[in-house]
Design a protein that fits this description.
The complex is a heterodimer of chains A (119) and B (112). Chain A is mainly β. Chain A contains no helices and 11 strands. In chain A, the strands form 2 sheets. In chain A, strands 2, 4, 5, 6, 9, 10 and 11 form a 7-stranded mixed β-sheet that branches. In chain A, strands 1-3-8-7 form a 4-stranded antiparallel β-sheet, with no helix packed on it. The radius of gyration of chain A is 14 Å and the shape is globular. The chains are: A mainly beta (119), B mainly beta (112).
Chain lengths: 119, 112
């Protein structure tokens, strides 16, 4: 149980294009999803928290108009990187948390990540 | 002072030994404590979570929590080369949208 998938796993795009990343909880309902970014050999950086049916809460310094987050259902959240530039190249990881798992309260389960390369 | 602190390592142990990873946190109101393992180029994987003082064992892993001293540790018994990874300590404080506050991780190398 507690499986989270991400798609695509890897994407290469040209500068100026937009990229959408999907995060799905496969066997539980994720009331909250988190989006992280991680640069090589650096720690995880939380970008935003999204609750199903609500607007995402962005961390300080993260541009909400550039990183669009939609959490329209209890099993799907999307992150769209708009007008991507080379400095947006990174490893983007989602995680999901849900109240529906027996005995589980605060645990976050991570997707496998999406490696974005902007040329 | 960082909210969650870990020794960056690398911590090097021989195969079969016990690896001991430590983490301290600053917020006395912290409620939930997690250990994640992250292999290079991969996403974090939840190894252990602990909510109450004391020890919690799962297979070769034991998490220990001491709220009075504000530390949480992870013991890995019979360490294997496949345990070589970065171990991330994470804490949830009261409020704060219950988001994880991360340590920077400890790199563990298990030598055959």
């Amino acid at each position: 149980g507690a499986v989270v998938s991400q798609h695509p796993s890897r994407v290469i795009c040209k500068s100026g294009t937009s990229v959408k990343i999907e995060c799905r909880s496969l066997d539980f309902q994720a009331t909250t999803m988190f989006w992280y970014r991680q640069f090589p050999k650096k720690s995880l950086m939380l970008m935003a928290t999204s609750n199903e049916g609500s607007k995402a809460t962005y961390e300080q310094g993260v541009e909400k108009d550039k990183f669009l987050i939609n959490h329209a259902s209890l099993t799907l959240s999307t992150l769209t990187v708009t007008s991507a530039h080379p400095e947006d190249s990174s490893f983007y990881i989602c995680s999901a948390r849900g109240p529906g798992l027996a005995g589980k309260r605060d645990e976050q389960f991570f997707g496998p990540g999406t490696r974005l390369t902007v040329l | 002072q960082k909210e969650v602190e870990q020794n960056s390592g690398p911590l090097s142990v021989p195969e079969g030994a016990i690896a001991s990873l430590n983490c301290t946190y600053s917020d006395r109101g912290s409620q939930s404590f997690f250990w994640y393992r992250q292999y290079s180029g991969k996403s974090p994987e939840l190894i252990m979570f602990i909510y109450s003082n004391g020890d919690k064992e799962d297979g070769r892993f034991t998490a220990q929590l001491n709220k009075a001293s504000q530390y949480v540790s992870l013991l890995i018994r019979d360490s294997q080369p496949s345990d070589s990874a970065t171990y991330l300590c994470a804490v949830i404080n009261a409020g704060n949208n219950r988001k994880l506050i991360w340590g920077l991780g400890t790199s563990l190398a298990v030598n055959p």
